[in-house]
């Protein structure tokens, strides 16, 4: 199989959209990602996967902390900003949750401290110990087959 076929197959898995954020010396750094999942309930652990070429990789290694911001359906522009898809500079305001930078209005804000680091292939997996969570009642932003989507109401037959 070639790289394109692999990427297309992985794109067939519908995911939420997150912005991973960290803070180094007062400067907040963020990146859009959908490579995120829960790992354990006891202790509360999550994992994020960061590519070797991502600028945020060294920042998380330095800070040993990160937040996962699960974006709401009305936050597509934030996803595009942190994915580098918008060329014009836009200032983004961050709030704080347990001292970690978080995005206001996200469906979930998850503050984490790095617990373990695994290098696998061309990515680094950060296992994060969850230190705090804030939830909002909003619909999530969805990504499927290379496009942003929204949840549809369930239809009962």
UniProtKB/TrEMBL annotation:
The protein's name: Flavin reductase family protein
Domain of life of the source: Bacteria
Alphabetical list of InterPro entries matching this protein: Flavin_Rdtase-like_dom, NADH-dep_flavin_reductase, Split_barrel_FMN-bd
Residues spanning the signal sequence: none
Pfam family, one: Flavin_Reduct
Keyword entries, A-Z: Oxidoreductase
Matches recorded under SMART domains: Flavin_Reduct
Boundaries of every Flavin reductase like domain copy: 10-150
């Amino acid at each position: 199989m070639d790289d394109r076929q692999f990427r297309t197959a992985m794109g067939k898995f519908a995911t939420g959209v997150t912005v991973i954020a960290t803070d180094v010396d007062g400067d907040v750094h963020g990146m859009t990602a959908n490579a995120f999942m829960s790992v354990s309930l006891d202790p509360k652990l999550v994992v994020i996967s960061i590519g070797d070429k991502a600028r945020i990789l060294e920042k998380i290694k330095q800070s040993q902390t990160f937040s996962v911001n699960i974006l709401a359906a009305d936050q597509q522009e934030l996803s595009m900003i942190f994915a580098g898809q918008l060329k014009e500079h836009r200032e983004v305001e961050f709030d704080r949750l347990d001292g970690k930078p978080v995005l206001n209005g996200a469906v979930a804000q998850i503050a984490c401290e790095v617990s373990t680091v695994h290098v696998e292939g061309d990515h680094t997996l950060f296992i994060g110990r969850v230190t705090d969570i804030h939830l909002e009642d909003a619909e999530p932003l969805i990504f499927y087959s290379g496009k942003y989507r929204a949840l549809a109401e369930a239809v009962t037959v």
